[in-house]
Write a structure and sequence with these properties.
Blueprint: H1 3-6, H2 11-41, H3 46-61, H4 64-128, E1 135-137, E2 145-148, H5 150-155, H6 161-164, H7 176-189, E3 198-200, E4 206-208
Helix pairs in contact: 2-4
């Protein structure tokens, strides 16, 4: 195959030639290793090997220049493939690093969640130990109790906090206007000291609280 003929080759033909070249290159590598072994043993002359390789190239590709050109193209494609592979490996390393950071952040959040739950339990235990009634409720006039301590439940005639949780806060007021005034004051100022009103227990009994 001469240099002039290679210019008219189609893309598919060049691809086939490159594939053949890779096969021959692989075979050539094996031959080189074998040659080196024989040379080290003193059975091969350098000139004879060079002549044989030149004859093989001439037979397969027409000229050493044409073979060199195909080899250069193959090497260029191999280098490009290696660059892509390196880029993918770098991307994989970055993704693993990101996943490790996410896993670490997840572990930190889990630890903080456990600590927060423990802090909440400790706070509830402290509030449960108080003799005064303490409760938490939803905002607004029609909000419901979301948590009460044991003392609060007993003050309003309930056997346990669970029995009182979920009932409307307005149900404990004898006068609904008192609840409305308290909610408005809390929304405006955040606190109302010394607030008192008539409340009622679960059985309807009224008392000043």
């Amino acid at each position: 195959m001469g240099n002039g003929n290679s210019k008219g080759l189609s893309v598919n033909a060049k691809t086939i030639i490159l594939l053949i070249l890779f096969l021959d290159v692989g075979f050539t590598v094996k031959m080189i290793h074998k040659y080196n072994d024989m040379k080290d043993a003193g059975f091969v002359r350098e000139k004879t090997f060079a002549e044989n390789m030149e004859k093989r190239i001439m037979k397969a590709y027409g000229s050493p220049e044409e073979a060199r050109k195909l080899v250069d193209e193959a090497v260029g494609q191999k280098q490009e493939a290696e660059k892509i592979a390196d880029s993918l490996r770098g991307h994989d390393i970055k993704m693993r690093h990101i996943n490790q950071e996410l896993e670490h952040a997840k572990e930190q959040l889990e630890m903080e969640k456990v600590q927060l739950q423990k802090s909440e339990r400790d706070k509830r235990l402290l509030l449960d130990s108080l003799k005064e009634g303490v409760y938490q409720c939803e905002p607004g006039v029609n909000g419901k109790f979301t948590w009460v301590n044991q003392s609060c439940a007993e003050i309003f005639g309930y056997k346990s906090p669970e029995e009182m949780i979920g009932t409307k806060v307005s149900d404990i007021y004898a006068d609904q206007n008192d609840r409305e005034r308290l909610v408005k004051k809390l929304e405006e100022d955040g606190v109302w000291r010394n607030f008192a009103s008539y409340c009622k227990k679960k059985n309807g009994e009224l008392f000043l609280h």
